[in-house]
C-alpha cells in the first residue's frame, strides 16, 4: 500500500471501540450501515458520519442509599446525530446497560426519526442499575443526580429524553423538575412521556404499541394475511408488547403465546389478553397465569403462529433460532431484536420482517406531538393524536415499501435507504463548520 493510501486509510479508520469486531448492538448497527451504503449514491461520501456518534457522555452517578451508604452507578447519554434536529431518545435503567448498547440505540433513533420524517436527530441514555433493588426514594435520587450530570447536553432544543426500559412518566417528571430547577424556569419540553398534568400528551402511553399494530396490520394486508383469526406470538409484555397484543386481539387475532422476563404461556385457542394484562400487573409477570399452559422459554421460538412480535430486548432472534420461527410476518416492537445473520435466514425463508426503525416509531412520533404541544401550550384530543399517528405510520410504511419494491431489497434496507438519505442530505446541505 502506498503512503498516500495508507494515510487515507488511517484518517478514516474507526476508533477501536467502534469496530465491527466488537459486535454487540453497535456492531450490528455498523453492519446495517454497510449494507445500505451502496444505495446512497453521492451521499455515500458522508457515510462515516453515521459510524461516529456526535457526542458520548459517560457519567458517574453517586447517590446515598437509604441505609446511609454511598453507591456509584455508571450512566450514559449518547447523541448520535443532530443534523436534522435536536437529539431524541429514551433513557433506560437496566443492570446490563453498556456503552455499545446505548450507542446503537441512539443510532437507531436517528434512523427511526428520519424514517417517519420527524425533525429530530438520534440520542439515547441509560444507567447500569437494577431498579428493582432500589427503593422509590433511592430511584428518585438516582434520577435527579443523573439528570444533573447530563444537564449540560440536554434541553428542549438540544436533546430531549423520554421513557424506555424500566423508566416511566414518574421518572420523566423527576427529570423535568430537576432540569427546570437547575435552569431556573419550568421547561416542560425537556422530556416527553411525562404525566398529562405536567404537559404530557394524550395517547403517548399507548403510542409505541399502537404503532406496532398499525404497521403490522398494514403489512399483513399487503401480503394477504388476514389479521382476524391470525395466530400471534408476543415476546415482551410491557408497554409495547402488552398494548400491541391487546390491539391485535381486539382486531380478531388469536394471541396464542406470550413470553416475558419470568415466564412463557401458551393457549392454542387464544389467550384472554385483558385477563393476562391484569395478572401481569398484579404479579409482575405472565408466569402462572391460570388461563394458559406454561411453555419452556426456548420453545417459544417453535410456536406455530402467523405473526411474531419481538418486543423485549436486543439480539433475541439470531442464526440459532431464526430457522425455527414459523411466522410469515415479524413486527419488531423492540429495538434491534434481530441480528444481521438472522435477517438473512429469514429473508431466504420468505419471512417478512417489518424492522424496528419503523415498526416501533409510534412512541417517538407521539413524543414529537408532545414536544410541539409543550412549545405551543395548546393540546390536542386523544382522537386527534391517534389519527395523526396512524396517518404518519402508514405514510412512512408506504414510502419504505415503495423503495423495497423499486430496489428489490428488504424492508429493513429500504428503511435505512430512506432514513440515511434524509440524514446525509441534511449533513451535505449544512456543510462543515468551521
TrEMBL record:
Pfam families recorded: ELFV_dehydrog (PF00208), ELFV_dehydrog_N (PF02812)
Coiled coil, from the record: none
Residues given in the record as NAD(+) binding sites: 208, 239
Entry protein name: Glutamate dehydrogenase
Superkingdom classification of source: Bacteria
Keyword Zinc-finger: no
One annotated GO molecular function: nucleotide binding
Gene3D superfamilies given in the database record: 1.10.8.1210, Leucine Dehydrogenase, chain A, domain 1 (3.40.50.10860), NAD(P)-binding Rossmann-like Domain (3.40.50.720)
Keyword Protein biosynthesis recorded: no
Binding site for substrate: 88, 112, 367
SUPFAM superfamilies: Aminoacid dehydrogenase-like, N-terminal domain, NAD(P)-binding Rossmann-fold domains
GO biological process assignments: L-glutamate catabolic process
Residues the UniProt record annotates as site (Important for catalysis): 164
Active site: 124 (proton donor)
Domain (Glutamate/phenylalanine/leucine/valine/L-tryptophan dehydrogenase C-terminal): residue spans on this chain: 201-431
Keywords from the UniProt entry: NAD, Nucleotide-binding, Oxidoreductase
PANTHER family: GLUTAMATE DEHYDROGENASE, GLUTAMATE DEHYDROGENASE 1, MITOCHONDRIAL
Family: Belongs to the Glu/Leu/Phe/Val dehydrogenases family.
InterPro entries: Aminoacid_DH-like_N_sf (IPR046346), Glu/Leu/Phe/Val/Trp_DH (IPR006095), Glu/Leu/Phe/Val/Trp_DH_C (IPR006096), Glu/Leu/Phe/Val/Trp_DH_dimer (IPR006097), Glu/Leu/Phe/Val_DH_AS (IPR033524), Glu_DH (IPR014362), NAD(P)-bd_dom_sf (IPR036291), NAD_bind_Glu_DH (IPR033922)
Amino acid at each position: 500500500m502506498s503512503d498516500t493510501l495508507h494515510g487515507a486509510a488511517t484518517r478514516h479508520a474507526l476508533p477501536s471501540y467502534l469496530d465491527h469486531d466488537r459486535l454487540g448492538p453497535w456492531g450490528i448497527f455498523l453492519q446495517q450501515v454497510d449494507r445500505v451504503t451502496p444505495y446512497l449514491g453521492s451521499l455515500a461520501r458522508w457515510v462515516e458520519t453515521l459510524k461516529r456518534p456526535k457526542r458520548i457522555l459517560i457519567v458517574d452517578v453517586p447517590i446515598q442509599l437509604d441505609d446511609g451508604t454511598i453507591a456509584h452507578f455508571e450512566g450514559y447519554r449518547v447523541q448520535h446525530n443532530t443534523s436534522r434536529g435536536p437529539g431524541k431518545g429514551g433513557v433506560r435503567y437496566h443492570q446490563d446497560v453498556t456503552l455499545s448498547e446505548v450507542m446503537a440505540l441512539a443510532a437507531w433513533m436517528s434512523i427511526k426519526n428520519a424514517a417517519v420524517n420527524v425533525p429530530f436527530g438520534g440520542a439515547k441514555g441509560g444507567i447500569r442499575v437494577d431498579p428493582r433493588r432500589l427503593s422509590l426514594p433511592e430511584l428518585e435520587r438516582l434520577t435527579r443526580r443523573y439528570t444533573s450530570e447530563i444537564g449540560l447536553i440536554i434541553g428542549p432544543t438540544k436533546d430531549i429524553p423520554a421513557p424506555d426500559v424500566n423508566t416511566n412518566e414518574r421518572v420523566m417528571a423527576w427529570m423535568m423538575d430537576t432540569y427546570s430547577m437547575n435552569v431556573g424556569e419550568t421547561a416542560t419540553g425537556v422530556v416527553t412521556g411525562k404525566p398529562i398534568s405536567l404537559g404530557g400528551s394524550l395517547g403517548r402511553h399507548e403510542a409505541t404499541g399502537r404503532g406496532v399494530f398499525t404497521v403490522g396490520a398494514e403489512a399483513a394486508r399487503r401480503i394477504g394475511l388476514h389479521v382476524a383469526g391470525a395466530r400471534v406470538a408476543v415476546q415482551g409484555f410491557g408497554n409495547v408488547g402488552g398494548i400491541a397484543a391487546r390491539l391485535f386481539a381486539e382486531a380478531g387475532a388469536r394471541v396464542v403465546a406470550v413470553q416475558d422476563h419470568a415466564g412463557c404461556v401458551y393457549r392454542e385457542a387464544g389467550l384472554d389478553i385483558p385477563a393476562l394484562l391484569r395478572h401481569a400487573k398484579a404479579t409482575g409477570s405472565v408466569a402462572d397465569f391460570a388461563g394458559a399452559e406454561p411453555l419452556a422459554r426456548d420453545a417459544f421460538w417453535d410456536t406455530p403462529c402467523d405473526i411474531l412480535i419481538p418486543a423485549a430486548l436486543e439480539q433475541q432472534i439470531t442464526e440459532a433460532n431464526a430457522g425455527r420461527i414459523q411466522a410469515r410476518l415479524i413486527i419488531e416492537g423492540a429495538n434491534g431484536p434481530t441480528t444481521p445473520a438472522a435477517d438473512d435466514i429469514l429473508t431466504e425463508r420468505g419471512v417478512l420482517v417489518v424492522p424496528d426503525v419503523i415498526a416501533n416509531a409510534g412512541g417517538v412520533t407521539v413524543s414529537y406531538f408532545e414536544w410541539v404541544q409543550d412549545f405551543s401550550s395548546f393540546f390536542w384530543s386523544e382522537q386527534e393524536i391517534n389519527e395523526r399517528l396512524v396517518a404518519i405510520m402508514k405514510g412512512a410504511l408506504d414510502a419504505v415499501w415503495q423503495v423495497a419494491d423499486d430496489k428489490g431489497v428488504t424492508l429493513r434496507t429500504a428503511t435505512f435507504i430512506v432514513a440515511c438519505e434524509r440524514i446525509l442530505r441534511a449533513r451535505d446541505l449544512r456543510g462543515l463548520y468551521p
